[in-house]
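@here heads up, posting the sequence + SMILES for the zinc ion run so it's all in one place. Ping me if the SMILES looks off, I pulled it from an old spreadsheet.
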Amino acid sequence: MLGKDHMSLSFLTALMVSLPLYLGQVIGSDILICFIFTVIIGSLLPDTDCNGTPLLYWKFGPLYYLMKVLVFPSTKFVLKFIIEKRDMCNLYSEEINDEHRGIMHSPAGIITSSALLTIFIALFLYVLGYFHIIYTFVAFLGFFGGQFLHLLQDTCTKSGVNWGYPFTNNLLRGDISTFRKQGEQVDGRLKEFQAILFSGIIFVIAIYSYSNKNFFIYLYPVIILISMLIWIYILWRANVFSEHIAAKTL
Ligand SMILES: [Zn+2]
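bot reply: prediction finished. Complex structure tokens:
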């Protein structure tokens, strides 16, 4: 999936789950903006470790270099020590050439890299005197949430995601093409997914407008449930299935 698709689908999802908290006055506009912004960045992070020039480089250059030079190598270093059972030498060669089997496209990789990126930024802000514990926590949630959504989105593509990496060799993949041959149409389902998530946001605003303002926040679990159902629908529409990698020549 292309960077702009990752950005738009992650932005819409993040807005759908965080806007109710803002409308229900649980969080302020500062937290809302911090969360949405870090989710958008998070949705671009995993592809920094792949061939080519990712959108992160063009949009947020300093973060691209922070990821490339500091966060990814240290993530691999940390995981190498945590996971001793497997021959982790593969980590250093395999995933650089093969984006969707690598550590940066796995839950272990995105948790570790989100934590490390947050720590590096927090240290930097601390030195400058701008450190803030709440924003730091929200930024971690945003980086992790954005990267998690990236994995969900890549699961819909033909390349798929090995969610159990490096412990399993099962690829979950759909049938959406990331790259188009010349003259080929963009997969219409991407627009459909954006439209459904956008409708979800309109739905949230509609409920807020018509419900008792004091009662609105109690509907939050329902909104979370609906956004989860939307994502189950998206995975179903992308015809996601499980495949053993050993049987496949990548
Ligand atoms: Zn990816």
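MO: The pocket of zinc ion is lined by residues 46-47, 99, 105, 150, 154 (CB under 6 Å).
MO: One more: Residues 3-247 form one domain.
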